[in-house]
Amino acid sequence: MDNKRRQFLKTGLAAGGVGAFAAGYATTTKHMVHGAIDGTAGKKTNHIHHGNSLETEYRVDEQGKITPNPNQRVAPSMCFGCWTLCGLRVRIDNRNDEILRISGNPYHPLSSDQQIPFKTPVKDAYIGLSGESGINNRSTACARGNGMLEIQNSPYRITQPLKRVGKRGEGKWEPISYEQLISEITEGGDLFGEGEVEGLRSIRDIETPLDPNNPEYGPKANQLLVTNAGNEGRDDILKRFAFNSYGTRNFGHHGSYCGYAFRAGSGAIMNDLDKFSHLKPDFNNAEFILFIGMSPAQAGNPFKRQARQLAEARTNGKLSYTIVTPSLPAGSSSLAAGDRNNWLPIKPGTDSALVLGMIQWIIENQRYNHDFLSRPSAKAMQKAGTTHWCNASHLVISDETHPQNGRMLRASDIGLLETGEPMSDDDGFIALDVTTSLLSSHIQVNEAALFVDQDVEIDGQTVRVKSSLQRLKEEAFKYDLAYYSEQCEIPQNQIIALAKRFTSYGTKAVVDTHGGNMHTNGFYNSFSILMLNALIGNINAKGGAMAKAGGYPTSVAGPRYDFTKFKGKTKPQGVFLSRSKFPYHKTSEYKRRVAAGESPYPTRAPWYPISAPLLTEHLSAAIDGYPYRAKAWINHMANPLYGVPGLDNLLGEKLKDPKQLGLIVSIDAFINETTALSDYLVPDTVTYESWGMATPWHGVATKAITARWPIVEPKTSRTQDGRAINLENFFIDLAKTLDLGGFGENAIKDSQGNWHGIHSAEDFYLRSAANLAFAKGGVPNVDAEDIVWSGLERLVPVMNKTLKPEEMLKVAYIFARGGRFEDATNAYTNETMKYKWAKPLAIWNEKLGTSRNTISGEQYMGCPTWYPQKLADGTPLAEQFPAKEWPFTLTNFKSNIHSAVSNLSPRLESIKGVNPVYIHPQDASSAGIKTGDVFAIETPSSTTHALAMVIDGIKPGTLGFEHGFGHKELGERAHWIGDTQQPVKMKSNDGVNINDIGLIDPTREGKGVMLDWVVGAAARQALPAKIYKV
Q1: Taking a C-beta distance cutoff of 8 angstroms, is the pair 950, 15 a contact?
Q2: 733 backbone dihedrals φ, ψ, rounded to 5°
Q3: How far apart are the C-alpha atoms of 648 and 872, rounded to whole Å?
Q4: Which of 336, 446, 478, 898 could form a disulfide with 902 if both were Cys (CB 3.0 to 4.6 A apart)?
């Protein structure tokens, strides 16, 4: 018996519920043994009574007098253990500037059930955390956050500029000076003995079209691609450089390979295909929540706040909930939930079949919110007293032969426009007034008919029009309930029961799919799921679906400084590499093909008219050359080769060839699967060493901004003038070397008209903080005690140097509390949210409904409908990869212990060091597989080997992967830096990564990975697979 199998069996795991319960702790036994052998067992402790525990950070006596520990300081910061970005209190040893422990920031809404009032003095906040009172005020940080404090001193950390030696991706580097780094990146040359490399100065041409035959592609400067892992509070300076200084169109981050199908589906229903806003359940007041495609314990930021709210609501409140997923998630198996939750297994990728079955029953039985749906305007909403309004009653041109098919009918179409221009805001939508039975502009109607199907005259032609809700009804009734049940493999009676239950709580029911639906039909799945919220009219209602309260202005045109205007500012022009946003029918290619009498379809690769820039497509486009090639790539922390399913198989080898992409520069504290292919590595500060201004996720009902500052000295090397080398200073110096606007002298204008420079990170963030401190009535002045108790003394000299005296006093007030946070009491106004979503919901989305798939030429449906999983050309996945040959489908879920970089934490690895793949007992029995066995999982594109975990908590025919494992870098491979080799994790088996076996789409001419066929989001769920025992 091999060691891996023995390790599993020693823990006493068995098939079924015990296995499911223990899955997260399967490697604990192994690490306990390591602790006994390799740890500190048997050694004398630091203290006879307290062992190796830390000194207290302060003492509070019986009179409430507080005494600080002179050996420590406590400073507020932000966690980056995952993308929730919680607020922290960080304990630091004054003797060596080392971080000792982290806990939650009681001022921060992501770290406390009810954050303490913002005006509470810092000393009083800490007193409130002590004694019995501290139980109510306790502000915590999760295990992942605590584990990730280890990254500051990780042996895998990069602290100096590196240049590759030998071939790209070989893992050999030489340290170079910062000045050499900046010079070579900007000027290019024969940098590696492999021929000329074009530098950023040469690429930066904002006048010359990069392709004269396709001028809409924009200038040559677009051949620089800039990417970021995501916004952890530093996006603004990065975008300032990319868009407004350098002038490239191409900037992207990890959203497209994380939860973008959900965000796009949410953007469609919320009428926001620009920012892709989304709604979250009001956990504190909801009475029933339906989670589809995700579990609140394992997906959908903000994790910690969400889990805490859920636990509180189901034990002390009225909340019950149902989770519809292919795998039993942690959180639905909790004994603490009693009978107030249940799990409904579903076939991966069929969520919209379930939901359309529910919608069919809801419409048939008139269980929808008629009062909400029939209000066609904000004016009608206010008159009726509903919390929101939508376009359910607005009429849609519904004639496939009409050139405007899918467009909303306007007043100008039928001669009702009185003032203004056609298609302007004055040109109202048309609804059927139930009082007069006449077609009228929506702003003149108080109550409109919901189900309309009739002819109208447009320019002397009879045209069929239907109301948005009528279109939805027709799509829902396209198939019968038996068909939907067959698709999702949930019995008809359970679909009906779920629809009945969801519509039994008024507006205190809500559905969520944040973090789910990463299928090729994920967009329409998400659009369909979120339509349930519209049908019960719960938007902006207490206990329903809540919008984000948002933050406060920082690096914008604010009350103290205007960041938006500067000499040399550029406006990016042209088409994104990912072919997003730009309508294909406006391209030169489309016009040439039509003029030549050809069909404009298919295109070489898909265009995505409603999507944001997509890192799922940026790199494949940059290499393939459609629409054009990239010449240089600057990447901050993003790891698409690990995170995008199939991308490593598609591009891993090609990216090693400098002829494919001439220059790759990465800014990161570590070497991940993507940054390992860099030509240059720029060291970066980690969270506790860096500045940042981050807005919390949706789900926070009050305004908040996390403002972080370097609470410890950065470990990175320094520039000649003493600044830490990091993301900000790198871009500042790059811009200054290239003589670009927006950095260096005269970069920011204050409210008196004086100009100030950006020569360091402090110059940017302290002035951003001044805007934050003075916005919307401002904050009080700081007092001396706040500065002392927040460890802020070390920042006072640079604040005094950079800011005006009146600014410094208010900025310090914010930094002492870790940001600016509105009080929790401001969340509601009676039975509605204080901060409401204002745009009407789109039962029919006009932009979607008038766009086409550029491979097949098919027009998209503007409302939810049933589509099976498809490839880019419309071929059903089940037809391309028949179930007879590929009998399994794969699904994945986020870990509640690990994130994509948490394998860097020895503490977290000691809790769970490997991710077994879930398999149902009947599938395991058929394949002769037992818990702890190694088995092969093969998809049409690749194969991987995994440890088996046999459990009942997975749908038969499905394999479940936990995310955050399966790294090939981040310490899993040794890199040479000069003559020194990085350590290798000899004890680590990092598990499996579902993305390694993601699919390459065989139907595309310009090769790319398999993606959502509408919006280009990553598809890592419901992949076809087969298994066999190794």
Answers
A1: yes
A2: -70, -35
A3: 19
A4: 898
